[in-house]
Amino acid sequence: MGGLRKLAGPFVVPGPCGVTVRDRLKHLTPRDEIVLRAVGEHQGRLASRDLRARCADGLEHSKETWAARKRDLTAQSSSRIAGAITKATHDQWALARRCQAAHIRTLEAGIRTLRHRLSLPIGAPGTKRAAGGYRSRGEWFHKSRRLAALEARHDAAVRDRQAGRVRVVRGGKRLLNTRHHLTQARLTEGQWRDRWEAERWFIAADGESGKRFGNETIRVTPDGEVSIKLPAPLAHLANAPHGRYALTSTVAFAHRGVEWADRITANRAVAYRIHLDTERGRWYLTASWQRPAVQTIPLEAARARGVIGVDTNADHFAAYRLDRHGNPVGEPHRFPYDLSGTADHRDAQIRHALTRLINWAGGAGVTAIGIEDLDFTAEKTREKHGRKKRFRQLISGIPTGKLKARLVSMAAEHGLSIVAVDPAYTSLWGAQHWQKPLATPKRKMSRHDAAGIAIGRRALGHPVRRRTAPPPHDRRDRAGHRTAQAGPGTRGREGTRPPATDHAPRDVPPNGTRKRQPSASKTVRDAPSTHQWVQDPLMHTG
């Protein structure tokens, strides 16, 4: 393909494997809040100590050290609470290791780019595949210093990874750094302290299949009554048998409440977490459970009724419906969203845009949505794009990770499949082959709309081009028809024009009906052929 990279084939994205619902704990008494705070602080301290012990073990971790840590925690809480704490600790340590590996890869990409650009002469032009030299000697000098700094960071990160050291902050590194910028965050020291302590609490329990209502530590009955198994040092606060504390508040999950009730009635595992929203002063209970792995439908089945190609942009989704032959149907649709403001606002904007997209897809009658398998992790570095700060901000604003997670989970509830395709050249080829042909005085086609068509055609297994070159006129019987063409039985396919009536223009229907009578002929050429023309003998020439 002359310098173009090999394209990956489309695939059906696996559906979600878990469910999470949340409800507010209303009408808690002051004693309820005192007990919840005491349990959160006590178990939060245990979780912090266990995480410190796990980080100290590093690569020397084994089943024996895990069992020893769990025995120490059991004496200060219970066996089930100890199991939940150690499991959360291992998950957090593993996440830190994955982030460490990603950080090393990012540093290596930046170092490669810097070394390449520093090796070129100053002012050397770049290419589509690689950047050129730096513009001035001063910029070259500063980038050489940055190369030395990145190499030092890379060496330190590699040493930490080889030694099994990770940097983990319970409560979050961002919230920890906010302590030094309280004015910009519009927080007082007391407000920050309350948020910091609440984030470090630990009031969670893993589900257990076969146990009563699916959880022995945090138990929720079908009527919504919530009770907690208190750790051993706090057993004197119990107000129910067997060292339990029953809250006065009840819960009723409005979303997926029937599914949750079916699980706890059958004593299937359900995990719970209780946390405090310090900004609103509200307590919440979150329930989560796993779903059995469902085999994704075959790719051909997902394509059977056509797809909707979706082009993801920094401020909107551009979608176009295509039939199973790859032909655009109807008009382009755009679903805007605003990613400015707080994280909750951005999340709500994405959910609202995806909801409208999925509702439109359901009404259109398709069974699949085609999206690009985007990943801008390696494209956001300033070493790659240099002075193009606005472009880096643009690609950083596209919510690729959150989009995938939310779209897959929301589409699964409406019976829609997600087909991921290679994002290479979709905008370029879409604009080249589809933007101008589909533009009309009443339809404004943007580059993003054309990219949606390219994505949909790639999801269907068709080339992005509208039609391939026809076979030679003398080889039609051997070469066949165009490869990108609808089948003979397809309604509305392109074929031969219907025969026109005698002496009728092409826009006259075959039945011969006319809107008006033809005007009388005014020229000799238009006269009927039956007319006899006779020259006047008295006419002389010359």
Question: Which features characterize this protein?
Answer:
six-stranded mixed beta sheet, four-stranded antiparallel beta sheet, 16 helices, 14% strand, disordered C terminus
- Tally of contiguous helical segments: 16
With strands numbered from the N-terminus, the spatial order across the biggest sheet is 1-13-12-9-10-11
Mean pLDDT, nearest integer? 82
- Give the class from helix and strand content and strand pairing: alpha+beta
β-strand percent reads 5-15%
Please describe the biggest sheet, giving its number of strands, its sense, and whether it closes into a barrel: 6 strands, mixed
State the end-to-end distance. 71 Å
Fraction of helical residues: 40-55%
Categorize the overall geometry.
Answer: globular
Low-pLDDT runs: 500-504, 523-542
Strand runs, count: 13
Order of helices and strands: EEHHHHHHHEEEEHEEHEEEHEHHHEHHH
Give Rg in angstroms: 34 Å
Describe the model.
The chain has 542 residues and is an alpha+beta fold. Helix content is 42%, strand content 14%. The chain is built from 16 helices and 13 strands. It has a six-stranded mixed β-sheet. Strands 2-8-7-3 form a four-stranded antiparallel β-sheet. A hairpin with a 4-residue loop joins strand 4 and strand 5. Helix 1 packs antiparallel against helix 2, helix 2 crosses helix 3 and helix 14 packs across helix 15. The longest helix has 41 residues. The radius of gyration is 34 Å and the shape is globular. The termini are far apart.
